[in-house]
């Protein structure tokens, strides 16, 4: 893909402490929070999970980890982990719209995302988050 100029720096910067970018797309069967309370949707998805590329799992020694902790300066959450070759290396994907109670310790993915607004018109920056990952 071509690169485009980034005129406003709103993303968290990758670092040695936080080497992964987090994105939080809506869970497939939820669409929006209207559907996350429906048993049909919950039964299809079972529980929240994080997806990472197998090469990242190997690098972190997480190939056999069932649960991981994902965190940054805003907090940390515990979540099930799955390898997924379709995820770009350096990326953690956690589908959103799960209620906090679906996570251990009742801390959902929004624990990690910022409520800051982006220039020029106050857009959301919740896909511009950096995190670390560790075995639980």
Question: Outline of this structure?
Answer:
The protein has 136 residues and is mainly β.
Which key terms come to mind for this protein?
136 residues; mainly beta; Barwin-like endoglucanases; globular
General description of the model:
The structure is a single chain. The chain contains 2 helices and 8 strands. By secondary structure, the chain is mainly beta. The chain has one domain: Barwin-like endoglucanases (Beta Barrel). The strands form 2 sheets. The protein has a 6-stranded mixed barrel. A two-stranded antiparallel sheet has the order 6-7. Strand 3 (67-72) and strand 4 form a beta hairpin. The mean pLDDT is 84.
Taking the sheet with the most strands, its summary is:
6 strands, mixed, barrel
CATH topology: Barwin-like endoglucanases
Indicate the percent of residues in helices.
Answer: 10-25%
| Low-confidence parts | none
Strand order, sheet with most strands: 1-5-2-4-3-8
Give the number of DSSP strands. 8
Termini Cα gap? 36 Å
| Overall 3D form | globular
CATH level-1 class: Mainly Beta
Mean pLDDT: 84
Indicate how many domains the architecture comprises.
1
Structural class category: mainly beta
Order of helices and strands: EHEHEEEEEE
Gyration radius, in Å: 15 Å
CATH architecture: Beta Barrel
> β content, as a range?
25-35%
Number of helical segments with 4 or more residues = 2
């Amino acid at each position: 893909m071509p690169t485009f100029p980034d005129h406003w720096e709103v993303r968290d910067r990758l670092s040695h402490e936080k080497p992964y970018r987090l994105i939080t797309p809506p869970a497939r069967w939820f669409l929006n929070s209207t559907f996350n309370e429906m048993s049909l949707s919950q039964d299809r998805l079972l529980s929240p999970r994080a997806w990472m590329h197998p090469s990242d799992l190997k690098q972190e020694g997480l190939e056999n980890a069932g649960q991981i902790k994902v965190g940054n300066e805003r907090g940390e959450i515990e979540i099930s982990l799955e390898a997924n070759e379709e995820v770009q290396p350096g990326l953690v994907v956690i589908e959103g719209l799960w209620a906090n109670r679906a996570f251990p310790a009742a801390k959902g993915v929004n624990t990690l995302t910022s409520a800051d607004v982006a220039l020029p018109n106050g857009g959301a920056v919740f896909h511009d988050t950096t995190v670390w990952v560790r075995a639980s």
